[in-house]
Each structure stands twice: as C-alpha cells, then as structure tokens.
Design a protein that fits this description.
The chain is α+β, with helices and mostly antiparallel strands. Helices cover 65% and strands 9% of the residues. The chain has a 5-stranded mixed β-sheet, covered by helices on one side. Strand 2 and strand 3 form a beta hairpin. Helix 2 packs antiparallel against helix 3 and helix 3 runs antiparallel to helix 4. The longest helix has 89 residues. Its cofactor is [4Fe-4S] cluster.
Length: 387
Amino acid sequence: MRDPRHSDPWRLGPRGRWWFDAALTLGLLVPGFLGHLMAGQPLAALLTAVQVAPLWWRRVHPSAVFAAVALASAAQAPLHDLPIFGQLAFPIAVYSVARWSPRPHGVAALLVGYTGSVVAAWSWIGGFGAPTITLSAVTPYVVSIGAIVTAAWALGFAAQQRERYVASLVARAEQAERIAEREVELAARDERSRIAREMHDVVAHGLSVIVVQADGARYAAAKDPDLAVGTLATISTTGRESLTEMRRLLGLLRDGDTGVAPQPGLDDVRHLVDEARAAGMEVDADLPEAAPDVPDGVGLAAYRIVQESLTNVRKHAGPRATVTLRVTVGPAVEVEVRDDGRGAAAASDGRGLGVTGMRERAAVHGGTLEAGPAPGGGFAVSARLPL
C-alpha cells in the first residue's frame, strides 16, 4: 500500500487549469461589471472589463497580460479617481508574471507595481475629497498597496522557484535513469563478450582434442582395434564435457537460468595436462603440489590461458611437438607455456582470437601476457596475474 505521507502533490491538470482560469476571470468580471452598472458607474464598469478580461491568457502570455492590465490601470488615474472592482486584477497579473515569465520581467512588474501604488494613492486621496494631499495621508495607501503587490510577486516567485527545483529533480532523475540503463547495457555487453571468449575457449579446445583423437583412431583402427576403442572413449568424454560447459555458458544467456555450475580454476589445470597427454601430446608440467588459494577470477583466467595455449600448440605447432608448462603462485600467478614446434612458421588464417582473448583475460585482472616465437624455435606464452 502506498504511504500517504509520500504521495505526489495535488496539481491541476490541463482541463482543471482551464476551468480555474475561467472561474477566476468570470468571477471578477461579471460581479464587477454588473455591480458598477447597477451603481450607475458605466465608466468604472468599462475599466473593470478592460482590466479583468486579459487574465484569461495569464498562463500563456503572462508578460503581455500584465502589460495590458498595467496600461488599463494607468488609464484609470485620469479617468476615474476612485478604487474600482477591476483593480483586483493587478496583483493577480503581478503574480502571474512573477511565476511564468523570466525573472527580469517579474522584477520589472514589481517596480511598476510600486510606482502604481504611489499614483493610485495620490489619485484616490483626491477622489475621496481631501482638501490637500499630504505625505502623511498618502503613505498608508502606498504602504498597503505596495504590500499587496509585494505579496503577490513573492508568491509567484516562490512558485516559479519550486517549479524550477522540481524540474531540475526530474531532469536529474531522468539523467540518472539513462546512465543506469547505459551501465546495464555496457555490463550486458561485457558479459556477452566474456561468454564469447569462454565459448571460444571451450569449442576450440574440445574440437581440437576430438580432431586429434579422431585422426589417431582412424589410423589405429586397422592395426590395434583396442587402442581405437580407447581413443573413441576419450573422444566421447571430451565431447560430453565440452557440451556440458557450452550448455552452462548458453544458460547464462537465458532468462531464468542462473548458470551456477562451478567455473574451472587453477587446480583444474592438471586435468588439461592429463587430457593433452591422453591425446598424444608430450607435456612436461611443473605445477604446484597443492591447489593454492587464489581468487576464482584469477584461477579461471590462468586455466583458460593454459587451455588456449595447449589448443594453439595442437593446432599450429605441428606433429611431435613437446610442451613445457610451468605454473607458479607467489605475489602473482605466473603461467608459462612453451613448445618446440613450428613457431612463427606456423600457418594461420589470421582470424583467430585466442591470443587476443588471453591478453584480455590478463588485462582484466591487472596482469600482462606476452606471446610470440621463442628464442631457439617454437612458440611461448607467458602470463602474469597479480593477486
């Protein structure tokens, strides 16, 4: 249930404002005009109509309405030297220009009102039949009229300030909403890029293992069927693991799937080594004896770097390439994968994203990665991930 203490302020809608302005204008015009006519004051009735009628447009053209009311009030001084009903329109016009016009227009209206208070007081004293016009007689009228003008201007000015403040709050809220939407969009884009890198690593590694094993099984089938059966079992296991991880990654893109399967970490590097050896690759691995306690993100990055490096060896280093893998944990996780294969002479279609993805993973954790031909031949990948 909505808390009434925090409800939106009540405001008139467009239709309500129209009715309010109609009631205000007619409520001043009809009794004022008819009242002066019934009192035998046709000139006062006409001046009342001229002063009150412009109030109908006070929201749309406040400055022009004030100018019309002020001119009609100024014309009254030489024509009629007594107060009339239509002079109620003057403070309303002052309020309107102070609320809906630029601030200089409101200040000008206030000054005109002060001037008009002096003129009106001087004219009314004479109309009341005073034999002489003295400062002591005029002052109370000037102060009273000036106070009414000041109050009308202050109310309009305060309303304008409040509207500006509310408008600024709304603008800031809309800007904050746009920024939040943009941040969500950027976060989603980053997450999709991360998932794309993960998918690349999974697919490239799994398929490379499957291709190598399938080639070996094809050649072994004729000479050693038992070896072919074992190789096919490795292909099946690798394919299932790759499909499982692909489903987990695709689940992150679906609504309602949390993708809570555990991410591989540093301790899973041994599985990569065993898998590579099972595929026929010679791997000399130097890994920590016990699984070190490292942040999940750093462990995943190290795992993916090793995975991608072994995949590249399998794809580009050539047959009978030997791999040296070293992983150390200290102030940083350091990964080095070196092979004695073709190195810079390896053919590439130029469309691979493996090295780029590894560099991005290292950069996310404030680390560095170097990849290129190794001295003496082969290819080397060296990464450092600070803890």
